[in-house]
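Intended use. Records like the one below are meant for learning the mapping from a protein sequence to its folded structure. Do not use them to infer anything beyond what is encoded.
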Amino acid sequence: MNFKDNKAIYLQIADRIGDQILSGKLTPDGKVPSVRELAAEIEVNANTVARTYDHLQHSGIIYTKRGLGYFVCPDAQEKIVASRREQLMQGEMDYFLGQLKAVGITPTELQELYNNYLNK
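Structure written out for the chain above:
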């Protein structure tokens, strides 16, 4: 897995797991790879994955069954979508809209670009 410098690695791993949940690769009440399995797969320290799982568990995305491992919470998709919408609206959207304004992209042009993107 390639990591970016602008975000903690454990949060990038959490985003990847979130992507897998949103895509259906990891399903509600489905088992999540063990800490060791995931650490070996993405070539990071097991402590980093453990920190990721602690973060996801605290966020209500995964839960643990003693002796069996980690599983996806039934409402994980809804929580991920809500969290990502909030992050987008609070930070990234302001910058994005400022850039659109700076280069002169109109709301009509943006709507057309977005429609074209959805139709791909």
